[in-house]
Amino acid sequence: MRASLISAAFVAALVGYGSTIALVLAAAAAVGADAAQTASWVLAVCLGKAAGSALLSSWHRVPVVLAWSTPGAALVAATSGLTMPQAVGAFVVAGLLIAATGAIRPLGRAVALIPDGIAGGMLAGVLLPFVLKGAAAAEAAPALVLPMLAVFALVRLANPAVAVIAALACGVALAFALGFADWPALALPLPRLSFIAPAFDGGSIIGLALPLYLVTMASQNLPGFATMRAAGYEPPVRSALGLTGGISALTALFGAHTVSMAAITAAICLGPDVHPDREQRWKVGLAYAGFWVLLGLGSPAILLLLAALPPQVMVALVALALLGALTGALATAMAVPEQRFAAVLTLGVTAAGVPFLGVGAAFWGLLAGLAMVALERLAARRRG
Predict the structure, then answer these.
(1) What DSSP element (H or E) covers 338?
(2) Number of domains in the chain
(3) Domain coverage including residue 284
C-alpha cells in the first residue's frame, strides 16, 4: 500500500479522534456512564467506524470514511436526567432510524422537508452552550487555557485540520509541566466491551433519539455525501445509511452513540495527493479502518491520561473543537431570510437546555421552529 494512503489515513484518524474525544467523554459523563462503560463506548464507536469504513470502501471501490457524530455527542452531552440504559435505548432507536432512511425512501424525503434554517438553528442551539463555556475555563485556569487559545489560533492559520490537536498537545504539556496534573500510574488496561441493556421510554426517544437522528443526518451524513461528490465520487447513499445505521444500533448496546459519514476528515482522504490514480483511492478506507482499530485498542491508556488533566483543559478543548461546527450551523440558520426568525427561535429554545415533560430541549426547539415556519407560511398565503 502506498505511503501516501497510509499517511492520509493516519492524519484523518488522528484529527477525528484527538479533536473531539473530549466531547465524547463529556457525553458519557452527562448520562452517568462509569469508567468501564465510558471505555466500552469509545472502543465500540472506534470499532464501528473501522468496520463501516472498510466494508463500504471495499464493497463500492470508492473511499468511504466514517466518523462518530460530533453534533450527536454534543447533543448527548447537553442532556440531563437520563440514565445510561435510557441513552443506550435512544442510540439504538437513532441507529435504526438512520438505517430505515436508507431503506424507506419516503422517510428520507420527510427529513429533507425540514427547512435548512431550522436544522441549522437546532444544531447551533446544541453547540452554543459548549462554546460559551470556553470563556469560563479561561478565567478559571488562564495559565493553561490562554496558551491553548493562542496555539489554536496560530496553527489554524496554517492548517485548520490540526489546530485542535495542537491546542490539546499544548494543554497536556502545560498541565504536567506546571504541576496542574500528575502522571497516571503506569498501566495498560485491556480494552473491553461492556454490554448495556437498553431501556426504552417515550421521553428519551422523543427527547434524544429523534434529535440525535436529525442532527446526524443533517450535520454529518448529508455533508459527508456532498464531500464525496465534490471530490468526484458518487456516494453509496442507501448502503451507507443502511450500514452505518445498523452498526450504530449494534454498537449502541456497548454504549456507543451513532457513527456516520465524515466530512472534514473525509476531505483529507479524497484528494489526488492520496493516490494519483483515483480508482485506487478506495484503499485509504482500509488503512483508515486499521488506525481506528489501533485507537480503539489504545483508548484505555489514552483515557487515563485525559482523566488526569484539569477539567478546564477539556472544557476549553471542546469549545475550540466546536467553533467550526457552530460557524457552519449559524451560517445555515441565517442563510434564508424568510427562515431567520424561526431559526433564531429554534436556537434560543434549544440553547436554553430546559427539558419539558421529560423531553429534552432540542426536540422543543425543533418543534417551535417548525411551528413558526408553518405560521409564517400560512400568514403569507392569506396576505397573498
Answers:
(1) none
(2) 1
(3) 3-383
